[in-house]
Amino acid sequence: MNYTNIQEAFLKEHETVPRKELTELFNAEFGTQRTHKAIKGKCKALGLKTGRNGCFQKGQTPPNKGTKGVCKANKTSFKKGNTPHNAKKVGSIVLHKDKDGYTYMRIKVAEPNSWQMLHACIWEHKHGKIPEGFCVIFKDRNTFNTSLNNLMLVSRSELSRLNKKYSSIDTSLREVALQVVKLQHEVIKKGKR
Questions:
Q1: Distance between CA 158 and CA 135 in Å, rounded?
Q2: pLDDT above 70 coverage of the chain, percent
Q3: How confident is the model over 165-184, as a mean pLDDT?
Q4: CA 151, 157, 162, 163 torsion: positive or negative?
Q5: Helix (H/G/I), strand (E/B), else coil: 137
Q6: What is the largest CA-CA distance in the chain?
Q7: Environment class of residue 173 by beta-carbon count within 10 Å: exposed (0-12), middle (13-18) or buried (19+)?
Q8: What are the C-alpha distances in Å from 155 to residues 84, 137, 163?
Q9: Is residue 81 in a domain?
Q10: How many CB atoms neighbour CB 14 within 10 A?
Q11: Whole domain around residue 28: which residue ranges?
């Protein structure tokens, strides 16, 4: 849309007027049907400023003057003992994506916010606490198949070798590969002695 020199001069003369009001004034003055967006765009093209910079003007009082701290409690603030509407109960299962993009199931084991991987919780319920340096993995690599017969306890070093040497092995042979890794681990330990 083209603007005449007179229209541009009008915009420059009223540059500090808020853009919605300026649009109404402009259309009333020149009998046009320009939109708020069009006037705003033309003002920007002409480099016109509204006069507001986001700072308090001299003599202007900030709305929170005299209050201690930035924020006070209001009707939507949590009160002591109040539970948010989206809080999960103990035993709730949710999906959790780790930093590598794998999705696992987590279960809430205690209040207020104690969570554990579901497969580890199932293993511990049957076999006791997972020893330090060990982890529970899935035989078929399906992180949603948390049945006990699909879970294996392996050491971190065995898992490292399993992932390094046998990452592309068929899932039905994964247990055999783990036994091979365990055997190699024992041979290495005996060699060091």
A1: 10
A2: 94
A3: 80
A4: positive
A5: strand
A6: 97
A7: exposed
A8: 39, 10, 12
A9: no
A10: 15
A11: 5-46
